Automatic annotation (TrEMBL):
Gene3D superfamilies in alphabetical order: DNA primase, PRIM domain
EC number: 6.5.1.1
Enzyme class: ligase
Ranges where the DNA ligase D polymerase domain occurs: 28-280
Pfam families membership: LigD_Prim-Pol
Keywords associated with the record: Ligase
InterPro entries, per database record: LigD_pol_dom (IPR014145), MtLigD_Pol-like (IPR033649), NHEJ_LigD (IPR052171)
Highest taxon of the lineage: Bacteria
Keyword Transmembrane: no
Lineage: Bacteria, Bacillati, Actinomycetota, Actinomycetes, Kitasatosporales
A GO MF label: DNA ligase (ATP) activity
Protein name, as recorded: Non-homologous end-joining DNA ligase
Species of origin: Streptomyces ficellus
C-alpha cells in the first residue's frame, strides 16, 4: 500500500520509499524525500516563480532518464502551473514549485530541478546571469576554479558580483544577480566575457561548444542565458550513482581548490554546510544586490 502523508494540509501519496535510487551509496527514495524536506527553506526561494523543467530518473541513473517541461500526468490541482508558450505548443504550461507540499510532490517523482534565469511573470527578462564551467578531461573542477576567479574579477570591473556553486557533476556554475534585462542582452554580454576569457586564458578556456576544442580546457558555456535554456537549481540532487548535490560554495573554497574531491558534495554534507554557512546564494534573491548590465 502506498503511504499517505500530510504536508501543510495537502495529502500526498509517497511511493516506493525503500527503492534504491543512488546505487553507490544505497540511497533510497525515502532518504531523498527527507533530504528535500531538510533543505526546503533554502531551496524553495530559488524555485519560486520559475517555471521548472524536470530531469526524471525514477529508476536511478542507470535506468531511463527523460527531460520534461510539461506537467506530468496526475499532477495535483493544487500544484501551481503557468503558461509558457513554446514554438511546438502555444498552450504549454509548466510547474512552479511554490511551497513544501509541491516540493515533496515533485521530489516523489525523483527529479533534478532545472530553472530558467527569468520569472514566470516576466518571461525572457532575466534577473540573473549564469556561466556553466564545464571541464574537458583531463581538466577537472580545479581548472574550472581558476576560470571562475578570472570571471569574478572581470565581472567586478563592470560592478557585478558573482557567486559560485558546484554543478553536482564535474563542473562549476557562476551566478550574477541582475537588474532585470532582456535575455538576449544578458546572453550577448555573457558571450562577450567568455570570448574575453578565452583570449586571456587561451591555454585553459574555450567559448565554443565544439567537442574537438575541449580536451584539457574549460568550456565557458554562456548559452544557458538563452531564455529557452535552464540550469540545475541550487541544492538539487543530480542523476548520478552517488547522491551528488549542486552545492553553493564560498570563494575561499574555490580559490583553495586543489583536487576535485574538495568540491564534491553529497546529500549528507548539506545539513552541516547549511548550519555553517546558511544559503551562500541568498544574494541572488535580494534586489538590493542586483547589478546593472554595462
Amino acid at each position: 500500500m502506498t503511504p499517505i502523508t500530510e504536508v501543510e494540509g495537502r495529502r500526498l501519496a509517497l511511493s516506493n520509499l525503500e527503492k534504491v535510487i543512488h546505487p553507490a551509496t544505497g540511497t533510497t527514495k525515502g532518504e531523498i524525500l527527507h533530504y528535500y524536506a531538510t533543505v526546503a527553506d533554502c531551496l524553495l526561494p530559488h524555485l519560486r516563480g520559475r517555471p521548472l523543467s524536470f530531469l526524471r530518473y525514477p529508476d536511478g541513473p542507470d535506468g531511463q532518464l527523460f527531460f520534461t517541461k510539461n506537467p506530468p500526468p496526475g499532477t495535483p490541482s493544487w500544484v501551481k502551473t503557468v503558461p509558457v508558450p513554446r514554438s511546438d505548443d502555444t498552450n504549454a504550461r509548466q510547474v512552479v514549485v511554490q511551497d513544501l507540499p509541491s516540493l515533496m510532490w515533485a521530489a516523489n517523482l525523483v527529479v533534478e530541478f532545472h530553472t530558467p534565469q527569468w520569472l514566470a511573470d516576466d518571461p525572457a527578462v532575466a534577473d540573473r546571469l549564469v556561466f556553466d564551467l564545464d571541464p574537458g578531461p583531463p581538466a577537472t573542477v580545479v581548472e574550472c576554479c581558476h576560470v571562475a576567479v578570472w570571471l569574478r574579477e572581470r565581472l567586478a570591473e563592470d560592478g557585478l558580483d558573482a557567486y559560485a556553486k558546484t554543478s553536482g557533476a564535474k563542473g562549476l556554475h557562476l551566478y550574477v544577480p541582475l537588474e532585470p534585462a532582456p535575455s538576449e542582452q544578458v546572453q550577448a554580454y555573457a558571450k562577450q566575457l567568455a570570448v574575453e576569457a578565452e583570449a586571456d586564458l587561451s591555454a585553459l578556456v574555450v567559448h565554443r561548444m565544439t567537442k574537438a576544442l575541449r580536451p584539457g580546457k574549460v568550456f565557458v558555456d554562456h548559452s544557458q542565458n538563452n531564455a529557452a535554456k535552464t540550469t540545475a537549481a541550487p541544492y538539487t540532487l543530480r542523476a548520478r550513482r552517488e547522491p551528488a548535490v549542486s552545492a553553493p560554495v564560498t570563494w575561499e573554497e574555490v580559490e583553495s581548490c586543489g583536487s576535485p574531491a574538495q568540491l564534491a558534495f553529497l546529500m549528507a554534507d548539506m545539513a552541516p554546510r547549511l548550519q555553517d554557512h546558511g544559503d551562500l546564494l541568498a544574494p541572488l534573491l535580494d534586489p538590493d544586490q542586483a547589478g546593472r548590465l554595462p
